[in-house]
Amino acid sequence: MKIQKKYALSIIILFVVIVVVGGIFVSKSTISFKEAALEQVNLKEIDTIEIIKSEDNSANEKKITVSNAKEIHQIIEELSKVQLKKSDSSAPSSGLYWITIRSKQERSVGLTIFGEKSLVVYKYNTPVPKSNVVSYEIISGYNGKLIENLFE
Fold this sequence. Notes:
The chain crosses the membrane at residues 7-26. By secondary structure, the chain is of the alpha+beta class. The protein has one domain (31-150): Dna Ligase, domain 1, CATH 3.30.1490. 34% of the residues lie in helices and 36% in strands. It has four helices and eight strands; from the N terminus they run αβαββαβββββα. An eight-stranded antiparallel beta sheet has the order 1-4-8-7-6-5-2-3. It is elongated and about 70 Å long. The relative contact order is 0.17.
């Protein structure tokens, strides 16, 4: 009887350790949008955000340029809620946005958002070439309604 209790207790302890270690590993593997894309950008210097919308990967594109400081702040705040996880590739999707964030009239960051599933970050003027294009899976926090409403 004592052996069965020790065995059961060992299994429970092992299970708890695996859950805790797994939780720590998963939480460390996600990154915020700010960390992924805006680390080297002075948010107060962003003067324009250009957004190109393409539906169903067609040639039918719509383009807007946002230069109103309040709207820029809203867009950055909305994107800042997004949690990401590095990915090897981006998933094709029906909705596609190309976003260019400009600071002092120069391209700072480019984004490609594939629906609500994945995002690619292009960092212009990055000293390390390997880190200038990174694909991410969108884990949580993305709501494309704000960007969609800009086109109405």
